[in-house]
Amino acid sequence: MATQAVRPMRKPDERHLARQRWARAGWVYGTMLALAVFFIGPFYVAFLGSLKDNPLEWPFRYSFPQTQPKNWAAAWRLGQLGAGNPWTGGFAPGAEVPFQISYFVEEGQEPEPPTVTVPTRRAGAGLGAIFDEVQAAPYAQVSEVQEVSRRPAVVGGQPGQIVTYAFTIRYPRGDATASLPTVPRLPLDIEAPRGQRYYAATLDPNRLERRGRVASWDSITPGFFGYVFRNYVRVFNEARDPNTGASFFLRWTANSFFVSLAVVLTTLLFASLGGYALARMYLPGKNYLFAFIVFTMTVPGQATFISNYLVLRDLGLLGSLWGMIVWSAVGAGAVFIMKQFFESIPREIEEAALIDGATPVTTFFRIILPMATPALGALTILTFQGMWNEFFKAAVVLSGQQASYTLPLGLSFFRSAYGVAGDWGLMLASAFLSMIPIIILFVVFQRYFVEGVSTSALKG
Amino acid sequence: MLRSQRIEALYALLFLAPFLIHLGIFFVFAFVRTVGFSFTDATLIGQSSRFVGFANFVELFREPRFLAALTHSISFMLVVTTLQTFLALALAAVLNQRLRGITFFRTVYYIPSVLSSAAVTVIAIWFFQKTGFLNTFIGYIGSLSPVLLTFGVLFVLAQAVQVGLERWRGLPVPWLDPALATISLVVALALTWGLVGLGVVRPLEARPPEFTWLTNPDRFLGVPIPLWSIVILNTFTTIPTLMLIFLAGLQDIPKSLYEAASIDGATPLQQFFSVTVPMLRPVTFLVITLSLIGTLQMFDQVALMGDAAPLDSIIVLAYYVYNNVFSGEGKVGLASAAALILAGLTFAIVLLQRALGISEKAH
């Protein structure tokens, strides 16, 4: 080429190379940030969805009433005023709740005060509809609606004015002899005459209908959680056992913990015993046995569950958490991990103990197990996570017994119970709640998760 | 056998006893029983059953739902394994750097893999709704396409101009020189922002989404659209695990190989294909096997979808077996035969891997 003949190619100088290195690092970090958004982003938007009144709204909003600090403060204060409970709110005897709402009224129209009603509204769809909640309507007294202020404004290019109205909702104590209930929620509907559009309120409404004429609240004394994490509170409050009235979700969480911890204990004991025997002890045909164990890991659970279902049925363990524990008591994978670990520790220590005349049982429990703490730690984490997330076995053993569901099966139950009504807020909230223990475990013990995968898989 | 050896063997059996008893009841006995059931017309509620030979297997291949499950399982396995392997390898290659804070990112990427399939599937069903986030996002990108296109063209132009200038001055810069690309990025961003501000380039108006994922009766490449959503979901949640396995493999490749290659003048891309890929072959084998087996046995996502999608468009072998046992009278015989076919397919994959693995070692 002509240019090359005139200007011979230079070697890039040191400054140029340094610049390239820095820029490359920048691009790598940028890529990694983008990938982080890819892996975490879906969970973030789903979490936003779980806070919304309508998670399927279109267009999708990233900022909505539940994310605005103004509403957090208002919800806190109103909860305090309603029942002295800033967290979950309510409506107690003696409460006095002042409230304000502003409308935009176009020029040339005379503003009129809106109608305020405390409706009787059942909580949610699905399971919640079974129970009769104490309603606020019979106890609440709405004061006269008064105009507070008018100021001219231009909204959406239209000249007009913003009119603010105020009223107070009271819960009279009545005579001291009657015992009045504390109501969990104080729902409210405010309907404005035609032509007036909702502009602002002490607390933003849960729904706006008919072009901003009708604003409605599930509770105007919600408290912080009751407003921001409304769907999360509903997960606990609305899904209850029709017979006992106990919260399903709490029960499922307890069940999940019970099964996971029990299986962790049995797995730790049986897998370390078995793994040690396979790694260290004399047993004719040991290698064939080990090959067989590895083989069992590839056989799908669907090829064995029918008989296991029948065995558990004969033992009377169907629909019981014990059935799940017995079925999962020790897995081939756990024995495999422990065998690999015991093969990696030096032999001399146990040999010394054996020469001293200790039996294998004493050696194992006094000397071997204490040395195996790191492997046992990893096994604990992996087993706990596996059982916490186990769906197939739960679907086989626990099917139909809602009180003994574990969380994954419970989520599946919610999906069929609330999916019909499209109550996505509650479903998303329950999904996020069920993740909390695993996320905590992951944050604290992330090394075990990451190493567990790469080492155990590679050695296989 | 020495007496001490005999005692040790006894102790070994004692240690292994809980595990072996469990394995005996819940695996060996169970598997033998499944084989037995598959030749009978047993039902879950029926008391008696009789031997029917291979009738169950013959019936399976006459049943449209089983055939659908079989095709779905196999196509799901092939599609997801291909996607997962390539994406996980690419991701691992990006992450295999000695940079500060890289472990943090590794941890973050792993999160989708540790969460329960139940929770993730519930979130995914929301994601795939008509006005769910996926359609919203696609619509958003679509409406922004004029802006993104402008940005892309400007970026390429800026980079081409800069590289051309440097080469003309006699510096051997590569087309993707990172330092120049940073400048191109800033320039392209500024120009795009300016053009949008001036109103020369305008985003299109966003329209409400029309596309349905879970209730769509159409097919793409012969696979029903609802199953594609499970493909996307499963790929997303499994990539991190496979990526970590690849990463462990990458870190085992001696640095000296790369140094030798670069002294011989190999470009990073050449190094990737002539050093990384062959050295990673055993790990790739493992990843593919794990992925094939895992996807073939996929159950949770289909079961959790439930009536969110029509069953015949998402059914796979594992769910077919479960569904036959726990619906209606419980066709245990038929389900067992289907389960054996599933197990047989898995076994064939393992055998194939073994056979190829041996030739790999000889090579």
Automatic annotation (TrEMBL), chain A:
<feature type="transmembrane region" description="Helical">
    <location>
        <begin position="367"/>
        <end position="388"/>
    </location>
</feature>
<feature type="transmembrane region" description="Helical">
    <location>
        <begin position="25"/>
        <end position="47"/>
    </location>
</feature>
<keyword id="KW-1133">Transmembrane helix</keyword>
<keyword id="KW-0812">Transmembrane</keyword>
<dbReference type="InterPro" id="IPR035906">
    <property type="entry name" value="MetI-like_sf"/>
</dbReference>
<feature type="domain" description="ABC transmembrane type-1">
    <location>
        <begin position="253"/>
        <end position="445"/>
    </location>
</feature>
<feature type="transmembrane region" description="Helical">
    <location>
        <begin position="257"/>
        <end position="279"/>
    </location>
</feature>
<keyword id="KW-0813">Transport</keyword>
<comment type="similarity">
    <text>Belongs to the binding-protein-dependent transport system permease family.</text>
</comment>
<dbReference type="Pfam" id="PF00528">
    <property type="entry name" value="BPD_transp_1"/>
</dbReference>
<keyword id="KW-1003">Cell membrane</keyword>
<feature type="transmembrane region" description="Helical">
    <location>
        <begin position="288"/>
        <end position="311"/>
    </location>
</feature>
<protein>
    <submittedName>
        <fullName>Binding-protein-dependent transport systems inner membrane component</fullName>
    </submittedName>
</protein>
<feature type="transmembrane region" description="Helical">
    <location>
        <begin position="317"/>
        <end position="337"/>
    </location>
</feature>
<dbReference type="InterPro" id="IPR000515">
    <property type="entry name" value="MetI-like"/>
</dbReference>
<feature type="transmembrane region" description="Helical">
    <location>
        <begin position="424"/>
        <end position="445"/>
    </location>
</feature>
<keyword id="KW-0472">Membrane</keyword>
From TrEMBL, chain B:
<feature type="transmembrane region" description="Helical">
    <location>
        <begin position="134"/>
        <end position="158"/>
    </location>
</feature>
<dbReference type="GO" id="GO:0005886">
    <property type="term" value="C:plasma membrane"/>
</dbReference>
<dbReference type="GO" id="GO:0055085">
    <property type="term" value="P:transmembrane transport"/>
</dbReference>
<keyword id="KW-0812">Transmembrane</keyword>
<feature type="transmembrane region" description="Helical">
    <location>
        <begin position="12"/>
        <end position="32"/>
    </location>
</feature>
<keyword id="KW-1133">Transmembrane helix</keyword>
<feature type="transmembrane region" description="Helical">
    <location>
        <begin position="221"/>
        <end position="247"/>
    </location>
</feature>
<comment type="similarity">
    <text>Belongs to the binding-protein-dependent transport system permease family.</text>
</comment>
<feature type="transmembrane region" description="Helical">
    <location>
        <begin position="302"/>
        <end position="322"/>
    </location>
</feature>
<dbReference type="Pfam" id="PF00528">
    <property type="entry name" value="BPD_transp_1"/>
</dbReference>
<dbReference type="InterPro" id="IPR000515">
    <property type="entry name" value="MetI-like"/>
</dbReference>
<feature type="transmembrane region" description="Helical">
    <location>
        <begin position="334"/>
        <end position="352"/>
    </location>
</feature>
<keyword id="KW-0472">Membrane</keyword>
<protein>
    <submittedName>
        <fullName>Lactose transport system permease protein LacF</fullName>
    </submittedName>
</protein>
<feature type="domain" description="ABC transmembrane type-1">
    <location>
        <begin position="70"/>
        <end position="353"/>
    </location>
</feature>
<feature type="transmembrane region" description="Helical">
    <location>
        <begin position="74"/>
        <end position="95"/>
    </location>
</feature>
<feature type="transmembrane region" description="Helical">
    <location>
        <begin position="179"/>
        <end position="201"/>
    </location>
</feature>
<keyword id="KW-1003">Cell membrane</keyword>
<feature type="transmembrane region" description="Helical">
    <location>
        <begin position="107"/>
        <end position="128"/>
    </location>
</feature>
<dbReference type="InterPro" id="IPR051393">
    <property type="entry name" value="ABC_transporter_permease"/>
</dbReference>
<keyword id="KW-0813">Transport</keyword>
<dbReference type="InterPro" id="IPR035906">
    <property type="entry name" value="MetI-like_sf"/>
</dbReference>
